[in-house]
Amino acid sequence: MKRKPYPKYKPSGVEWLGDVPEHWETRRIKDVGSLRGGAGFPYEEQGVEDEELPFYKVGDLKASSDGRVMGKPEHTVSKETAKKLRAAIIPPDSVVYAKIGAALLLNRRRVTFAHCCIDNNMTAFLPDKRRVRTDWAFYWLSTLDFGEFMNPGAVPSFSEGDQSILPVLVPPPAEQRAIAAFLDRETGRIDTLIAKKRELVERLKEKRTALISHTVTHGLPPDAAKKAGLPVNPPLKSSGVEWLGDIPKHWEALTVRRRAKRIQTGGTPPTAEERYYEEGTVPWFGPGSFDDQIAVSQPVKLLNASATKEGAARMFAAGATMVVTIGATLGKVSSLIEAGSCNQQITVIEFDQRCIHPRFATYQLKRLEPALRAIAPSATLPILDQGEIADIAFGVPSLPEQAAIAAYLDAETAKLDTLVAKIEEAVERLQEYRTALITAAVTGKIDVRGNAIALRHV
Q1: Contact criterion met (CB below 8 Å) for 355 and 341
Q2: N- to C-terminal Cα distance for the chain?
Q3: What is the per-residue pLDDT for 91?
Q4: What global pTM score does this model have?
Q5: With left for phi above 0 and alpha for psi between -120 and 50, is residue 292 left, alpha or beta?
Q6: Residue 420, CA distances (Å) to 191, 295, 366, 403 in order
Q7: Burial level of 102, CB count in 10 A (0-12/13-18/19+)?
Q8: Spans of the chain, pLDDT less than 50
Q9: What is the dihedral of CA 343, 349, 353, 358, to 10 degrees?
Q10: Residue 110 phi, psi (nearest 5)
Q11: Dihedral class, residue 268 (left if φ above 0, else alpha if ψ from -120 to 50, else beta)
Q12: Residue 456: what pLDDT?
């Protein structure tokens, strides 16, 4: 639906804002409200539920949903502690946001629902209700990309002095109310649609996981088995391994070590040797290269071939199975499409391809991603050692059946992945439309005053 513009415009006086509706004012943040910074509360002063004031950390901005209001935080603080630390108590209906670090670039804004405290990585804007409404301020601040205003440096930051001179457009109060009501309704519709699409993506991913798990433990479904000339609905037997359960009677239950030619962890070439990182041709992977796909995606870097020839990095064969064995993404499994290298957070298994189909083995271990995370000892930095990887058991049919299972899963997961990609692309377009709609409304590029539905909410 194409929306009409305002009848008359004037220069805003701000280059990137351009022209604005003739009857709107252009002010600075400090002219229409005040800013309050957060404070650093020692960990021992932070409670869970027993203190009077909710205490928001910058991570709570990221954890919140697409809604306007801050969620319930994990921590609380007492009024006495806030007074002792001379920390500002933020009133309800304030707009809070990050002012330092990576969270600043997320451009998340939230509105407080009660008196609270915020950490020293955040700022609160307290609107002067005689000039601007909280809902208007929220939508206006949501349009600003703080990355455009931040101070450059190793840690991005946005000082309160610079924040205070940010421009803000000020329509008449009744118009602010009408625009906010319009945006509440329209963004609510978009958010509902996005939530449904995300729920569908999760269901498709669950279906993908279940498909892999069932196929690599029970074989191909009847139609696919018949087409491949394999037993249809073969009888099952106990694998002898509790978490593996029953497998087809003609399969074996074997550990990784019995069919692996090599189990080895990657490494990182010395960064002081710049020649290892120049004119690179050897893909070098890290945990960030892993996703839900069966093959690793983008390498972290391309190493010079001399790094592997001189033993500064290890080379692994195409088809090898890679497992993240250290860190937050421990248990992620994928395979190498072509020969490559990896860092020390990854353990690589090269199976004996005379009896093990590489992708079948990768699918087997991919099915076990949650179990691999559970195997790792609970610690600040969980680690899976090579022995634990080598002791993993899985069901093994004949090589031709392994190849048929791998080909079937390649085809079926590709269908699901294509569908997921289309839905995620649609979500991205909806998010872009949501942002564009908010920007158009609060900068006066569209006139929603005559919107009857919106005005009924005024």
Answers
A1: no
A2: 22
A3: 95
A4: 0.83
A5: alpha
A6: 18, 17, 19, 25
A7: exposed
A8: 64, 452-458
A9: -80
A10: -140, 155
A11: beta
A12: 41
Determine the residue type at 259: R
User: What phi and psi, each to the nearest 5 degrees, are found at residue 278?
Assistant: -105, 145
Distance from chain centroid for Cα 169: 33
- For residue 189, what are the contacts with CB-CB under 8 A and spacing of at least 6? none
Identify whether the C-beta of residue 332 lies closer than 8 Å to the C-beta of residue 296: no
* 137 close to 111: Cβ distance less than 8 angstroms: no
pLDDT at 154: 67
Using a pLDDT cut of 70, give the percent of the chain over it.
95
In the three-class reduction of DSSP (H, G, I as helix; E, B as strand; rest coil), residue 193 is classed as helix
CB burial of residue 202 (10 Å; 0-12, 13-18, 19+): exposed
Collapsing DSSP to helix, strand or coil, 126 comes out as strand
The residue with tokens 């037997």 is 237
Instruction: Set out the domains of the chain in order of their start, with CATH numbers.
Output: 25-169 (3.90.220.20), 252-396 (3.90.220.20)
Cα torsion 131, 134, 139, 142 to 10°: value is 110
Question: What whole-number distance in Å separates Cα of residue 329 and Cα of residue 346?
Answer: 10
Closest CA to 348 of 371, 316, 378: 316
Taken as a whole, the chain contains a residue count of: 458
CA-CA distance, 171 to 444, in Å (whole number)? 9
Query: How many CA atoms are closer than 13 Å to the CA of 145, on its beta-carbon side?
Result: 7
| pLDDT per position as a tens digit, 132-179 | 999 999 999 999 888 777 776 667 888 889 999 999 999 999 999 999
Pick from 6, 144, 137, 11: nearest CA to 444: 6
